[in-house]
TrEMBL record:
Domain of life of the organism encoding this protein: Bacteria
Native organism: Larkinella arboricola
Protein name: Glucosamine-6-phosphate deaminase
Ranges where the Glucosamine/galactosamine-6-phosphate isomerase domain occurs: 4-227
Length: 244
């Protein structure tokens, strides 16, 4: 629990930088799972600052994003491809060929094969060294909505009504919010060597309390993280206010 989201984001960026540098010194890639949305923005800003001012290099970094709306193209205003370019990739020395984000434009019949390959690629690299997460107000991680099994695979999912409502403003109305998305499965997230979940603000306090202190249940996928051997919830004070 940190006094502010700023301080917390700096600490998380430092942890990511440590992993990147450690892997660099071993001559190995750092395999990072990344999230979009408002929660990680300051972490990415801090990583960019470290790149510019402290010479942090991302040349050995390979990234896999959690999710993408189906069927948004990479240049659509709300697409996560665009978000990642604007918030991080365009401002650091990462090789664009090493940045992976689910392809939201695939025809339905090709999605399953794509998802299998996405997971295989992560596994071939030895799994995720670090997974950054946010949490939805319904307890989703990635777009693993309530009802997602702990062993769920990377797949096309129908978005929950809460998720669509929360995205409505960004899309200029509920009717414009996609109904489906591709998400990394819970199983892959649970296999990451380290998981850090970010949550800021009063509006996330109730769901964070349930995820941390309540029962582990498929109705709240973030609660699965209670069973992860190396997980941390990084919160600001207002978000942690309801914790016992
Ligand atoms: C985004 C993602 C989602 C968000 C969650 C919280 O890639 O996977 O699970 O992390 O919806 O979103 P924000 O941070 O906007 O509150």
């Amino acid at each position: 629990i940190y006094g502010s989201a700023d301080a917390a984001s700096r600490a998380v960026a430092e942890e990511m930088a440590r992993i990147i540098r450690q892997k660099q010194s071993e001559g190995r890639p750092a395999v990072l799972g990344l999230a979009t949305g408002s929660s990680p923005k300051k972490v990415y800003a801090e990583l960019i600052r470290m790149h510019r001012q402290e010479g942090l290099s991302f040349r050995n970094v390979i990234t896999f994003n959690l999710d993408e709306y189906h069927s948004l193209g990479p240049d659509a205003l709300q697409s996560y491809h665009r978000f990642m370019r604007e918030q991080l990739f365009d401002h650091i020395d990462i090789d664009p060929a090493k940045c992976h984000i689910p392809d939201g434009t695939l025809p339905f019949q090709e999605v399953h094969h794509f998802c299998q390959q996405y997971e295989q690629h992560i596994n071939d690299l030895g799994g995720l060294d670090f997974q950054l997460l946010g949490i939805g107000r319904n307890g989703h991680i990635g777009f693993n909505e309530p009802g997602s099994h702990v062993n769920s695979r990377t797949r096309l999912i129908t978005l929950d009504q809460t998720t669509r409502n929360d995205a409505a403003t960004e899309f200029g109305g509920l009717a414009n919010v996609p109904r489906k998305a591709i998400t990394l499965g819970v199983r892959v997230i649970m296999q990451a060597k380290r998981v850090v979940l970010l949550a800021w603000g009063e509006h996330k306090a109730a769901i964070v309390k349930q995820a941390v202190e309540g029962p582990v249940t498929e109705t709240l996928p973030a609660s699965y993280l209670q069973g992860h051997p190396n997980v941390q919830f990084v919160l600001d004070e207002s978000c942690a206010a309801s914790l016992t």
